[in-house]
Amino acid sequence: MPGTTELTQLAKRAAAEAGFELAAIAPAHTFPELDYFPQWIAEGRNGEMRYLESRTAEGELKRASLSCVAPWTKSVIVVAAAYNTGQPYSTDPAPPDAGWISRYAWGQRDYHDVILPRLRQVEARLREAADGIRSWCYVDTGPVAERVFAQHSGIGWIGKNACIINQQLGSWLFLGIILTSLELTPDLPAPDRCGTCTRCLDACPTDAFIAPHRLDASRCISYLTIEKRGQLPGELRAGMGRHVFGCDICQDVCPWNNHSRKTPVVTSPEFQPREKLVNPSLEWLATIGEEEFRETFRGSPIKRAKRTGLRRNAIVAMGNSGNRSFLPVLRRIAESDTDDIVTAHARWSIGRLERADQDSGTCTRVLAQAYPSEQ
To answer: Is the pTM value of this prediction over 0.70?
Structure first.
């Protein structure tokens, strides 16, 4: 069997040939970044994402330590694929009738279906070179804290927004990992380069950050628009703005991603935006039928929100838009739609738009009284 150095080089070369921009090795250690995880779960910061609470037969949280799920692992191969396609940011001006879908979900194919086959190419090369090894591949689908291993492999550091940030590529990265029983040469951890910057924390409209690096997922717009089922918390709806699937705000404001740095743009056809998903029409999403939903979002991560969730989110975005032209369609939905979740949020948005109009009228009257026109 080839030696450690040769196998390490083989893994990185195979990752590059499979289409990954970055590849590095982390040791299979229990890192201190996960010490907070049990407390985070105990505080309910994971919202309704119960899969994060999965435990071993002995009652240990699986994600708290790699030894709980794959004690045979000696090395973790971490890879990253960039997905920045150069389209506008969520913080850029958008048409008043449009919403926002997180850029990771714009692609022609679900990123899981793109990254996992590439990972398996790398895994196959290693198995050819070292017969009898054990290995598992994950693309955020297993009980493994990918970001922690990404930081300790040197792929990037965990930013204050809890995203992995690479000095050259920013944070527009899909991560994949291969757990292996091979003893590979580890790379050095990535130094934290956030410094004193707090733009991501300050920009979050729902105050989802408890502290730097610590996210209350139950308040995060991405969680609310994707994972949360049923009624959205009333106190968080206004802060969701016009986001209908995911949120990019804490990445868009990051200096390591911003326009002036010219974060590299990728040309992979799989990650190029689907038609209508950049600044999508809110009325289209709010009224989309079951068949059109299935056809439009087949092979897309957006299907995770389900049709009810996507329509609900678009309706809330209408209410937050300040655009009164949405009132007729909102009233039609509120009066005749058969989905109780959708109609309840339509009523909320109608009230919000009507109150905004009343507030605007009050403001106009006050200004008119203060500055009467000269006759």
So the answer is: yes
- For the CA atoms of 95, 100, 104, 109, the dihedral, rounded to the nearest 10 degrees, stands at -80
| CATH assignment, 4-85+108-180 | 3.40.109
Q: For residue 219, what are its two tokens?
A: 């308040």
Average confidence (pLDDT) over 140-162 = 95
User: Is the separation of the CB atoms in 214 and 43 below 8 Å?
Assistant: no
Q: Please, which residues have CB within 8 angstroms of residue 358's CB and are 6 or more apart in sequence? A: none
Crossing angle of the two packed helices 4-17 and 111-129, in degrees rounded to 10: 150
Rg, Å, the chain Cα set: 23
Start-to-end CA distance of the chain, whole Å, equals 95
At residue 53, does pLDDT exceed 80?
A: yes
Pairing of strands 243-245, 100-101: parallel
Please, is 48 exposed, middle or buried when counting C-beta atoms within 10 Å of its C-beta (0-12, 13-18, 19+)? middle
CATH 3.40.109-classified regions of the chain = 4-85+108-180
CA nearest neighbour of 320 among 187, 183, 218, 225: 225
* Residues acting as catalytic residues: 140
Strand-pairing partners, residue 61, are 55
Question: DSSP states of 265-284 as a string?
Answer: PP--GGGSPPTT-SS-BHHH
